[in-house]
Amino acid sequence: MPDIKVTPLGAGQDVGRSCILVSVGGKNIMLDCGMHMGYNDDRRFPDFSYITQNGRLTDFLDCVIISHFHLDHCGALPYMSEMVGYDGPIYMTHPTKAICPILLEDFRKITVDKKGETNFFTSQMIKDCMKKVVPLNLHQTVQVDDELEIKAYYAGHVLGAAMVLIKVGSESVVYTGDYNMTPDRHLGAAWIDKCRPDILISESTYATTIRDSKRCRERDFLKKVHETIERGGKVLIPVFALGRAQELCILLETFWERMNLKAPIYFSTGLTEKANHYYKLFITWTNQKIRKTFVQRNMFEFKHIKAFDRSYADNPGPMVVFATPGMLHAGQSLQIFKKWAGNEKNMVIMPGYCVQGTVGHKILNGQKKLEMEGRATLEVKLQVEYMSFSAHADAKGIMQLIRMAEPRNMLLVHGEAKKMEFLKDKIEQEFSISCYMPANGETTTVTTNPSVPVDISLNLLKREMALGGPLPDPKKPRTMHGTLIMKDSSLRLVSPEQALKELGLSEHQLRFTCRVHLQDPHSDSDTLSRIYSHLKSVLKGYAVQHLPDGTVMVESIVLKVSSSGEDPNLKVILLSWSYQDEELGSFLSSLLKKGLPSGL
Amino acid sequence: MSHPTLPCNVLKFKSTTIMLDCGLDTTSALYFLPLPLVHSSRLSKLPGWASKDGTVNLEKELKECAGRVFVDSQPEFCLPERELLDLSTVDVILISNYHCMMALPYITEHTGFSGTVYATEPTFQIGRLLMEELVTFMERVPKAQSATCWKNKEIQRMLPGPLKDAVDVWSWKRCYSMQEVNSALSKVQLVGYSQKVELFGAVQVTPLSSGYSLGSSNWIIQSHYEKVSYVSGSSLLTTHPQPMDQSSLKNSDVLILTGLTQIPTANPDGMLGEFCSNLAMTIRAGGNVLVPCYSSGVIYDLLECLYQFMDSANLGTTPFYFISPVANSSLEFSQIFAEWLCQNKQSKVYLPEPPFPHAELIQTNKLKHYPSIHGEFSSEFRQPCVVFTGHPSLRFGDVVHFMELWGKSSLNTIIFTEPDFSYLDALAPYQPLAMKCVYCPIDTRLNFHQVSKLLKEVQPLHVVCPEQYTQPPPAQSHRSDLMLELQPPPMAYRRCSVLGLPFRRRYERIQLQPELAKALVPSEIKPGISVATVSAVLQSKDNKHVLQPVPKPTPVPPSKKRKRLMEEVPELLSPKPLLSGSIPLDAFLASLHKSGITEVKVEETADGHILHLQAEDALIQLEEDATHIVCDNNEPLRTALRDLVLRFLQKL
Domain named Beta-Casp: which ranges (chain B) (predicted)? Predict the structure, then answer.
């Protein structure tokens, strides 16, 4: 029995370093290749030695697919392809292909240039890795090889984020990457057709959350920012350069315009302008409203938001700063945080999920004293606010996607074990399908039950459909007969007659003849009529005919009556049928042996 | 449809009716007078036309200019045939590029059409712009009356040529409204290259890149067994669109070929060079250059070419004006379709930079775009300059104004780049004309040489094409290289002809449910060939067929009433398999012996043997292809003999 195997190397009951291996129909696919923000050691990357202890991965993988440009989904890619060794195709959408190398280079700079790590991938490796990338378009069916095909769907998590359907023969798997089921200010909602995959591998970041309305969250966010500004405080919003940043920029930009506010808004790092440029060029990936109006007004040309300079952090007076990275684990956002943390007038708003081990995670858990590098401690006096603006599906969204795709099995990754457990129960209850949540390195095996595609001769099919009538009767299903010819790898279903002809065989006629003796004091022809009436009444639904040549036919069985010279009342009924009518023939012979009912 | 580059064909395949493209023949506009944007005293003073003998007087409808007669009415277009088939039966329309969808509102509106239109996103967006432009051109200069008398058959016969010879004039229609455009476009569903779209479970259609324009596509229409390729408006030249996908066209049973180059003798690169040198010459002499063009397509390449050329020719300060109601949208849209562009332009987007250099031309104020000649343009306009504007037929749009403005000076030049209209016909209502005319048609679609190479490569079993492609162009009847020569010869069609495509469908895909497949018992009939009899229940839904195991009959609870004979009546229509093979006498006798039948008298006959089972009083007649068991009154014996015989035979 064929089966599909899924093994997470990362993101199994965890968020970070997403990397999931799938084996389906003899093909091995790696889904995402991310890094973990919470670790600085080996655990930063997925454990590729699971695939092979020695040598390159090329021989073991048919393709690698990257769902979106966030580093926890693509951060290990150059390490995997250039340092471990993989030369096969890497698939990602155009926007991901454009933005991914920039974020990788950023990551490399922070790690190598700032933290001074060695044995890390180089700029050249990023370039070489990107040469292996094959761009994917939405809904395009890409034939990886003769058997393996993949198709991308819109995921709405960040610009260019995709879900992917992987298909080998009639077996299929969908991997969602990160996705969002509600459209926001700049992206549309995730969508997939009723593809009925054997397994749906879904993220479950917000497995237990049912988020309140987006409007409320936005109003809350704006209120908090506004209040802080009013009392002269500074607002730090740690973000990743692309994604939520643009969403919040659009939100603040429109608010500033409406309220006529003057406090400056800054966006850190030189990436901003460039980032916004990507949004302009890939406008077809944004939501309907932005796409419709972009000729008149491009939403990504901001009037109130300016580039940040490091020195501005010490400026007096209120300001709002978007700074990278989003989990306060390094870089500019952490530097600004250190500067502003001591003042209770200030505020930090964490707009997204923070993985364990990051400063962001610590302060969200209420930690007031942070140990910094060099044994210094940092007191956290500023207000810490968490606002979920991550574009992940919440529990409701995940259920909605299941309803859309109608999977046969469900597998959860990219979430916390406890919360997953809860969602798993809910899914199993509501959809009565199995739901799995393997840990890293743990393999889930799902047995599939594929149907067998066969070529049926059009003659046979049409004949059958004509006989079956326009509407099938579920109470009386019609049985169809055919002969399956198996030759080389082809399977053809034809009518038995055609099969004989094609195979050059002649039919072997098997016939039976049987004489039944009967006492019946009537003339031969009367006896025949009596037999006719008898059969007619017993065999309802059969074609019983009394032919003028002195025979009775039941379907294709012939009955004749003769009498012996000595005893004209002793009738001999001659029955003759072919093997095809065996049941009926046998039935008739025993029926007639019992004699004719006297009532006739 | 008669126009080979503006096709509209209908394909019926597996009970699906598919319309291939929806092109609008706008050459009919050439019979009409231009629609000026501002009052033109020249046009309004043209004399009316009456026949010489005075019997026909159509002074109000027809005007004469330089010896030719034009209809003074809003230009009308020649529609695809609408009578041959009930348009409400069309299931889907596949669009190959934005030039081939201009007749869409005529087909989808007020006709009962209720199907779906498939197009790529650039085709849809730019097609919408071109339709919007056409509507704006017509609606901003409304004509109070429309001329119809001249269409009367009796009258048309008496008109001077070419009006006299115009065909189907009664079916010509005025332009649609924006409301109709919006309604037509609401029926479009967007698709991407290589996206497999299922139609009713019966047919799969897939668009492929055709290399001609942004989002342009060829289409594959296939079932599991048959494949029809529809090739329309394809290009092998490296311009801005994604290159043509040729390999996916392989293994076609039928390839429908339309949209070849209209100017097979002109080399696009050479024309581009000529375009630049004529432009430079005119500007240097202080004249203006007018380029009548469509608002999308070759104009992007022209701008890119000029972007490089102007500086090197020291003409860097000459302003370019692009005037169209959709100029801004067209320029903006061209920059956002990275996925649909050639590799070169795609990699620019990764930087991120706009893929087309006209962004820079706009930024540096070298290229300015305006919705019309009214408003800002009139105050900012500087001469000498280069103006790109439509419509290339010179019958409507802002180009009419520039013809009136610049036509009288020989310093100015008009350069024709669009191949859709005869430039002499286009110029006819402006004669006498002093301005210079240059004809540089740029048609990047496949030429006959490229097409025969392509067909050799993809090897379709049959080619279907418009009849125009099967003979040299009428003006160059000696050029046998300007036609399709194929073996077998292509099947040609003309307007309203109906062709039967040369394939017979024999098979259909069906799924055996795993439980059924597992229960099959294959037996080897010949080396490498096995057969198994299949008894199953057929389920057909949405043109998908599945075979399920026969459900076990639910046991009927015994009831007294039915305990008689009726219960034993065998199920109707459950025939046994066919038998094949023959029965070897000796082996058969041995097995009879084994089952205790020992007294057998064998009699040889002409065709085989007769076995007399003496103790049992039964008879078995064995022949090569037949066995006959005669056995009276002994059912157990008969069934035993039957099973013995069956052991030697194959069941099918």
Answer: 299-427
Q: Which B residues, 201 through 230, put their C-beta within 8 Å of a C-beta on chain A?
A: 206, 224-225
- CB contact under 8 Å between B652 and A483, yes or no, is yes
Bridge partners (DSSP) of residue A511 are A578, B628
CATH of A511-594, one of 1.20.144, 3.30.310, 3.30.110, 1.10.3470: 3.30.310
Q: For residue B53, what are its two tokens?
A: 């003998």
- Strand ordering across the sheet containing A319-323: A305-307, A265-267, A319-323, A234-238, A347-350, A383-386
Average pLDDT along chain B: 90
Q: In which residue are the tokens 């096709």 written?
A: B7
The answer to whether the CB atoms of A137 and B193 lie below 8 A apart is yes
Q: List CB contacts (< 8 A) between A455 and chain B.
A: 224-225, 507-510
What residue spans define the domains of chain A? 3-210+391-447, 214-386, 452-467+481-507, 511-594
Which three-class secondary structure state does DSSP give residue B395?
coil
- Exposed e or buried b for every residue in A480-514, given b needs 16+ CB within 10 A? bbbbbbbeeeebbbbbbebbbebbebebbebbbbb
Which pTM value belongs to this model?
Answer: 0.88
| Cβ contacts of A542 on chain B, cutoff 8 Å | 572
Give the DSSP per-residue string, B310-366: HHHTT-TT--EEEE-TTHHHHHHHHTT-GGGB-HHHHHHHTTT--SSTHHHHHHTTS
Residue A218 annotated among the catalytic residues of the structure: no
Contact A508, B626 (CB under 8 A): yes
Catalytic entry in A171, A203, A247, A253 = A203
The topology (CATH level 3) of A3-210+391-447 is Metallo-beta-lactamase; Chain A (3.60.15)
Least CA distance to B553: which residue of chain A?
A476
pLDDT in tens, B555-605: 555 554 444 444 456 655 556 788 888 888 888 888 888 888 888 888 888
- For tokens 């003028």, the residue is A548
Q: What is the pLDDT of residues B173-191, one digit of tens each?
A: 999 999 999 999 999 999 9
The amino acid present at A382, given as its one-letter code, is L
Distance (Å, whole) CA A582 – CA B173: 71
A214-386 and A3-210+391-447 share a CATH fold: no
Classify residue B88 as exposed, middle or buried by CB count within 10 Å of its CB (0-12, 13-18, 19+): exposed
ipTM rounded to 2 decimals: 0.86
Pairing verdict, β A141-143 and A148-154: antiparallel
Architecture of domain A214-386 in this structure = 3-Layer(aba) Sandwich (3.40)
* B192, B328, B532: residue with CB nearest A140: B192
Which residues are A323's β-sheet partners?
Answer: A238
C-alpha to C-alpha distance for A70 and A66, rounded to whole angstroms: 10
Two tokens, residue A514: 């049987």
* Residue A56 · residue A87 · CB < 8 Å: yes
